[in-house]
Amino acid sequence: MSSTNTKSAYTKVACLAKPKGIKGEIVAIASGNGLPLCIYEGMKVWIVPPVLRGVRETEITSIGENYVEKTGELQRAVITLQGVNDVTSAYELQGRYLLASCDDVIINVEKNLCHSRSSVGKRVSDVRFGDVGVIVQERDNIAQLLWVVDGEYGEVLIPAVEELIVSSTEDEVIVNLPDGLLELNR
To answer: Where are the domains of the chain?
Structure first.
């Protein structure tokens, strides 16, 4: 008997800020990983850290009133989760995060929903230094998402911020790194 061992990558898609209403509605906000609020109705999510009793794995059943920033990115929305039916259950989730499989997340600008795929596996090239390596991991940092890039310069942490990204395709990200970033690992 053969078994396939597949390991999925997960990312924070929302932070559960506070309850709103008496039927378990919750205000979800952007998780601080550099992406807009990354949710959609029907999305399978995991609550972290998990609650001792109650819902741990669930589905977003509805997305109600929302707030869209000037950038066009969804930053806050009132949501309901399957199995969270009252204000007491909603209060237990306050301050926790929703995780989703990176395979489920794709950026959809038209709907202001983030459904983005992970950048893990993409090759990174710098406009001055050429090939930097391959993104082997994405790390959440308080300030922004960091790409862990493994290559000729060793393990390099690159902030995944718009100011550094020149262009991006399905297979490669071209960046313009600040002076000294690559030398930190030499």
So the answer is: 10-111, 123-185
CATH of 10-111, one of 3.40.50.720, 2.40.30.60, 3.20.190.10, 3.65.10.10: 2.40.30.60
In tens digits, the chain (186 residues) has pLDDT values of 444 444 567 778 889 999 988 999 998 887 766 666 778 888 899 999 988 888 899 999 988 766 544 444 556 788 999 999 999 999 999 999 998 887 666 543 333 344 344 677 889 999 999 999 998 887 766 667 788 899 989 999 998 877 888 887 778 889 999 998 888 766
Checking DSSP bridges between strand 123-126 and strand 172-175, what pairing results, if any? parallel
